Amino acid sequence: MTTYGSSSSVSVTGLPSPPFWICVLLGIVLILAGLLILGDVVLATVISTLFIGWTAIAAGVFEMIHAFWTKGWGGFLWQILLAILYIAFGIVLVQQPVAGAIILTYVLGILLLISGFIRMLLGFNRWSKGGWIMLASGLFGVLAGLVILTGFPGTGLWVLGSLLAVDMISHGLAWLAYAWQLRTKAA
Question: Residue 115 and residue 143: Cα distance in Å, rounded?
C-alpha cells in the first residue's frame, strides 16, 4: 500500500504540483482577466450568452446523434424532443444574445431565490449541527436573487458578466494562495 505524506510534492493523482511561478502567473492572468471583464460587463454578458447558445446547439446535435445511435435502448422520442429543445434554446440565444442574457438572468434570479430559501430552511433544521453557515449561505442566495429580480430587466445586461468577473478574480486569488502555500512549504 502506498501512502502520501503531506510533505510530498506529488499529489494523490500522482502528478507533481505545478511550479511556483506557474501558479503565480496563472493567478495574475486570471485576476487581470477578471478586471478586464469588469471593464465591460455588458460585452462579457453577451459573449457568455453566445457561448452558452453555441454550447446548447452542440449538445442538442450530439443528443440527436445519440438518439439515433442508441435507437434500440428506448426513450428515442424523449431524446429527440430534448435535442430539439436544446437546439431551439441555443438558436434563440445565438440570434438574440441580449434578450437571451435577460432570460438567463431572470432564470438565475429565480433559482437563487428558491435555492436560498431551501438552504435557509435546511440551516434552521440543522441549527444544532452548525446550520448557521447554511442559513448564511441561503440568506446570501435570497438577497442575490432579490437584487437580480427587483432590478429586472436592467440586471440582465450586467449580472452574468459580473459573475464571470468575480469568478475569474476569485480563481486567480485561489491560485496565488496555492502558490504562497507551495512557497511556504518549500521554505
Answer: 11
Cα Rg, the chain, nearest whole Å: 22
C-alpha distances (whole Å) from 67 to each of 75, 79, 84, 86, 114 are 8, 6, 11, 14, 33
| Orientation angle between helical segments 76-95 and 97-125, nearest 10 degrees | 120
Tell me how far apart the alpha carbons of residues 11 and 106 are, in angstroms, rounded to a whole number: 41
Separation between Cα atoms, residue 23 and residue 178, nearest integer Å: 7
Q: What is the number of other CB atoms lying within 10 angstroms of the CB of residue 165?
A: 21
pTM for the whole thing?
0.66
- State the residue for C-alpha cell 447558445: 53
- Would you state the pLDDT for residue 75? 82
Task: Check whether the bond before 153 is cis (ω within 30° of 0).
Answer: yes
Residue 40 β-bridge partners: none
